[in-house]
Amino acid sequence: MSSEEYSKAYKAGKRDYQSRMLRGVRPTLPVLDDILPTKGTFSEVPLGLVQIPMDQIVGTRHGGRSNAFAGNFMPILRENTEFAQKWATLSTIHENEGLRDPIKAYEFMNKFYVEEGNKRVSVMKYYGVTSIPGTVTRIIPKRTDEKENKIYYEFLDFYDLSKINYIWFSQEGSFKKLQEAVGKGTDEVWSEDEKLTFSSAYSRFTAEFKARGGEKLPVTAGDAFLAFIKLYGYQTLEEKTSSELKEMITKSWEEFELIGVDKEVELKMNPTSEKKPLLSRLLPLSSPKLKIAFIYEKTPSSSAWTYAHELGRLHLEQTFPDEVTTVYYDNVTPETVEDVIGEAIQNGCNIVFTTTPAFTQASVKAAIANQDIRILNCSLNTSHRYIRTYYARMHEAKFLMGAIAGAMAENNKIAYLADYPIFGAIANINAFALGAKMINPRAQVCLEWYKKKDSDALENIRKSGANIISGMDMVIPEESSRYFGIYRMENGYPRSLAMPLWHWGKFYEQLIRTIMDGTWKYDDKSTELKAINYWWGMSSGAIDVICSDSLPIGTKRLVELLKKTISSGEFNPFSGVLYSQTGIVQSDPSRDLTPEEIVTMDWLAENVIGTIPKADEMLEETKPTIQQQGIEKKG
């Protein structure tokens, strides 16, 4: 019987050998000696006896045994050799008693290379064993700036806490995200029970993931597992049956495919326009009546942000009185939003707008479960395939606001109040600072975060001596405050100079028109597997600046000129040579920053006085939004 098993293993090895030869890759086992960096650039650490995941055993320590195996560790020496006889004997022992003796191996970059026990590994791989005990020596390379090296050092930190070695990621920062996703503190050690629970959950997921064809995706099973538990929650895996888990993985498949796409988010810079045949324009097809739900985190009377979206909702009702009906749900929290979305869908809504980044995960879950419902979330650079996201290029308006502030700042000092350190917000700050500097080269922007812990932003502004202040973008209806937009402090009172305008009504109107006229579907065709983010600016009418009557006529004319050049695409606020607080960012005088570079900014312009705070420096109420859309400052 054992000789028959060797024959089967031999044939599997030959098939793998030939396949690798045809692909032009090494057909036999990799050799660690050939891979290791030069002496003096790595260190060795004994790990003792550990359980080695069979999938991660990829080669041999030395070259002597490499040519006895194909790259899948199946034997390729003929059946009449002494090697074959020994392999067959080990096969019989495994079937009767099990192979228990530990192998000896080296671990390098979380892959294992066998020094003693190659045939045992081959036999156990043949029988589909998932792991094998081994005495392991870890080889640690020196730190470099290479991505794989950085991920490996993140793994080492995670391993120190968990002693888990069977999960791997293709993206930086994932091990920390995993620690958080399973409910562990940043430096919290795992208990034995927690390790067993995790092993069970991960094994169940990977089994279904691989059965669905996950190994064909350009991502690791760990990447997909992390995306899954971030979406559904870690506890969900324990609660679901195998059939339920299989269905959830199948429905979420495009989320896993998206992980491996280099450019995860397709930024749609302007409303889609599609030329249609004359007959269809003369005789438009009737579109079904749309019932649209708007889901707000706060109330329109207590939140300027919610109030702006509520104005957008009312604009839709006035623009499409016969085609559209709307409802809204306010005072919704991240804990209740899933139920609210479900209620809206149950009540017949076929479009749902969730108006804060804090609702992104719930929006994706609802979209996966209800794939005939269009769900859109108001956030930026959010890479989810099942929903579309939308935002506005407020940095264009902020550049104009900065120009106004620079012109009006008599002592060259301007204060800027910011709320969340998230995607888009940093671009707003820098655009404002660049606008101020363009008009007034000596202008300095004092940055204050009013949602930062233990910080009195207004008192800090008073101490700065700035009398031109950029406050909140919009007025809160129930407060009737004049501390919004750009204002000048005169005798202790604010005097309004200008304010930016989020015209969500025009934004929503154009989005709904794409659904009514059928152009919505063209975005899907053009982006393949990329997530879609509508990021419209002044050219679409979604963003504007309103100037006060008290603003000098010359400054108003300047604003109109800048507005015209930005709207037409003739001028980009982030063009030419750009300097940050730490040095040059962009050295080419003829180049503009790309939309992706603008969205993901994590630096501040040289004339900004202040810093980008870390998430733990912010108030607790900011946590859901920052977790979803926060800037991770480099360096």
Helices and strands in order, then pairings?
Elements: H1 2-23, H2 32-35, E1 42-53, E2 57-60, H3 82-96, E3 103-108, E4 111-116, H4 118-126, E5 131-141, H5 147-162, H6 174-181, H7 192-211, H8 221-232, H9 236-239, H10 242-251, H11 253-259, E6 265-268, H12 278-282, E7 290-295, H13 304-319, E8 324-329, H14 337-346, E9 351-354, H15 360-369, E10 374-378, E11 388-392, H16 394-408, E12 413-418, H17 425-439, E13 444-449, H18 457-464, E14 468-470, E15 486-490, E16 493-502, H19 504-516, H20 520-527, E17 531-536, E18 543-547, H21 553-568, E19 578-580, E20 583-586, H22 595-599, E21 608-609, H23 623-629
Parallel strand pairs: 2-4, 3-5, 6-17, 7-8, 7-9, 9-10, 10-11, 11-17, 12-13, 12-14, 13-21
Antiparallel strand pairs: 1-5, 3-4, 14-15, 15-16, 16-18, 19-20
Largest sheet, in brief, is: 7 strands, parallel
What percentage of the residues does DSSP assign to strands (E)?
A: 15-25%
Strand order of the largest sheet: 6-17-11-10-9-7-8
Q: What is the CATH domain class of the largest domain?
A: Alpha Beta
* Cα radius of gyration in angstroms: 30 Å
CATH superfamily of the largest domain: Response regulator
Task: Briefly note the structural class of the backbone.
Answer: alpha/beta
Low-pLDDT stretches: 277-285
Name the CATH architecture of the largest domain: 3-Layer(aba) Sandwich
Whole-Å distance between the termini?
61 Å
Mean pLDDT: 91
Protein traits:
seven-stranded mixed sheet, Rossmann fold, 19% strand, Conserved hypothetical protein from pyrococcus furiosus pfu- 392566-001, ParB domain, seven-stranded parallel sheet, alpha/beta, 635 residues, 40% helix, 23 helices, elongated, 4 domains
